[in-house]
Amino acid sequence: MGDAVLDYAALAALAAVVREGSFERAAQALHVTPSAVSQRVRLLEERVGCALVVRGQPCRATDVGQHLCRHLAQVRLLEHDLQDVLPVAAPTAERARLPVAVNADSLASWFAPAAAQYAATAQVLLELTVDDQDHTAERLRSGAVLAAVTALAKPAAGCNSQALGTLRYLAVGSPAFMARHFAEGVQARSLALAPSLLFDRKDQLQARWVRRQCRKAVPLPCHLLPSPQAFIEAGLAGMGWGMQPLPLVQPLLAAGRLVELVPGTPLDVPLYWQHARAASALLDGLGRAVLVAARAALG
């Protein structure tokens, strides 16, 4: 693509539509009219020769649109870096946006404090997307984010990968739930009848633990609870058993409010920090903060 294609006002309009979810909200964020945003996006689509936005509620980027949004995010990061080394680069009050994908359990435990501490001192706005740790790398490959906490060690194309540590999960339920459903032991038959908890349809932790214990797949009845806090509360209330992250439930285990289905059978999930190789001080700074926090919190 040449300079005539990469019109940065049009790229900013595209990114705003994707970020805000509609042309109207994008116009408000950019302080222009919705027709101006629409015109800029349409002109960019004509120049690249394909659709960049799927119009809907909300609007979302196509694959090419995601790559262009990531390109703009990288350019904005590099522009901020220039302010420290190039005297003629005028400082801007606008903070750079840094899109990151992270799994919900990391966000609810060790990642959020690290992100908050970093954002308090950096000229950046973090845009966190939550997905299963086995799928966050897909968002990195698609161009939707510049960095991700992922369970995949192999780096995506154009990215680096660094080990963060291991997030330990335990299969737990309330004492009353255990007495009601596993009085005769935890086995394939009882697991096939006892309700389990599932974060979302991508969540394979319960199935992985059961395969390890039973040496075979067992169909599990499940409740869907796409919230780490609700997941814990449901377990405490005896709604079902589930794979709970040790950092979040350790006090509950110590107090006896939750117990392991089979003591001493953890499921360890190695986590990695993958990030685009674009040399950016802001992205590097976030990476350092994430690595320090993860290595203090994870095994």
UniProtKB/TrEMBL annotation:
**Organism listed in the record:** Pseudorhodoferax soli
Task: Tell me which domain of life the UniProt entry assigns to the organism this sequence originates from.
Answer: Bacteria
Residues in HTH lysR-type domain copies? 6-62
Q: Which family does it belong to?
A: Belongs to the LysR transcriptional regulatory family.
Q: Name one GO molecular function term.
A: DNA-binding transcription factor activity
InterPro entries, per database record? ArgP, LTTR, LysR_HTH_N, LysR_subst-bd, WH-like_DNA-bd_sf, WH_DNA-bd_sf
Which PANTHER family is this protein grouped with? HTH-TYPE TRANSCRIPTIONAL REGULATOR ARGP, TRANSCRIPTIONAL REGULATOR
What is this protein called in UniProt? LysR family transcriptional regulator (Chromosome initiation inhibitor)
